[in-house]
Amino acid sequence: MATVPVTDATFDAEVRQSSIPVVVDFWAEWCGPCRQIGPALEELSKEFEGKVKIVKVNVDNDQQAAAQLGVRGIPALFLFKDGQVVSNKVGAAPKASLQSWIQSAI
Q: Is 6 part of the annotated catalytic residue set?
């Protein structure tokens, strides 16, 4: 399973109402660090398939969810469990770091 694009219109259904934990990546096309972690998130979405869903919100197109969560810098990653934020981190990180962050939160 690849990462799933999410918009403000689909955010609640895809994230808050998900039956499994969800990692939300707030990103933008022009953001170098966002593009840097993209491939790692794609790989992790396959590794965690069925256990964790990884979704991407383009902040240039959809700003409502980012504003509600107080996103000030990107990439910003939020981990939701049972519809609530349980952890978040800002900035790029290597795949191993992202993997252990996800595992520790689920």
A: no
